[in-house]
Amino acid sequence: MPTIHDVALKAGLSVTTVSRVLNNRGYISEATRKKVFETMDMLNYQPNEIARSLLRKQSNIIGLIIPNVSHPFFGELANHVEYYAYRSGCKVLLCNSRLDPVKEKEYIEMLKRNRVDGIIMGSHTLEVEDYRNLNYPIVTIDRRIDAIPFVASDNESGGEMAARLLIDKGCRKIAHFCGNLHLDMLSNLRTTAFERVVRAEGVEFLTLQTNMDVFDQQEYERLMAELFTQHSDIDGVFATSDIIASFVIKWCRKLGKEIPRQMRIVGYDDVSAASWVSPALTTIKQPIEDMGRLAVELIRKQMDGETIGREYVLPVKLVERETT
């Protein structure tokens, strides 16, 4: 296997010059740079990234741990994180925890071994103490843990918007689908705000929670069957994800309920699929791209030793389409 010394010898340059080209440090003429890369190609030389990171004390790698890469919200978030990380000179190691605390711990250990510069946590199955002991630049998505910086959308405002829209449209009995409220997530504020508004307005409502696996689509089917069997007089639904809201549309079509005449539906997230389903889904739009960009920015600032705040709550907005 060729080494940096072989590259230097073949190119007729010093090892120091080749190292400066590889690490993009100091002035190097384009002719010299070109000669180094051509020699690397000729010898099939691959730089040792771990060794280079030890020298630089930075790997330019950010770890991203999410609970379910196939879920549209997390898929879109990962896409934006990778885009903005790459623009800032970093690569992303993507870890799919599947809400398994053992797997999540193993991924964290792997990220440590790979000397990542920081970790964006979108999966939150571990205990608070596990996060406290990371000693890495870290940003969490939608969870408040001690002094760790977090990025979230304005969940409370989103819940209020959804409730007021359904009430203003004349709904008198509203079902609310949400994740499991025993999980310590800022997204629970969507439910808190929704229930506060409908209670204050004297509107009848019921709340249906998923099990602890909030992405289990079989569980969504069970909840839909429960709702439409026991509460056939429901005329409005607020779901805390667009995917759950799409299941409501599916069941309304199955049961012959007309949308929006007999049923009005509001989702949350505004993933791309929200505008593709038929009828197109009214939803509360999270600024997913801005959340990904900001998470990367906060990691970079911590890497550079900058002091940053703890709470970064981004505004949401109502996107009204055909389901209301």
Describe the protein in words.
With 324 residues, the protein is an alpha/beta fold. The chain folds into 3 domains: 4-47, 434 Repressor (Amino-terminal Domain) (Orthogonal Bundle); 61-152 and 289-313, Response regulator (Rossmann fold, 3-Layer(aba) Sandwich), CATH 3.40.50; 155-287, Response regulator (Rossmann fold), CATH 3.40.50.2300. It contains 12 helices and 12 strands. The protein has helices spanning 4-11, 15-23, 30-43, 49-56, 72-87, 101-113, 128-132, 155-168, 188-200, 217-230, 242-255, 288-303, and strands spanning 61-66, 91-96, 118-121, 138-141, 150-153, 173-178, 204-209, 236-239, 264-269, 282-285, 311-314, 317-319. The strands form 2 sheets. The chain has a 6-stranded parallel beta sheet, sandwiched between helices. A 6-stranded mixed beta sheet has the order 7-6-8-9-10-12, with helices on both faces. Helix 1 crosses helix 2 and helix 10 crosses helix 11 (242-255). It starts with a helix and ends in a 5-residue tail after the last strand.
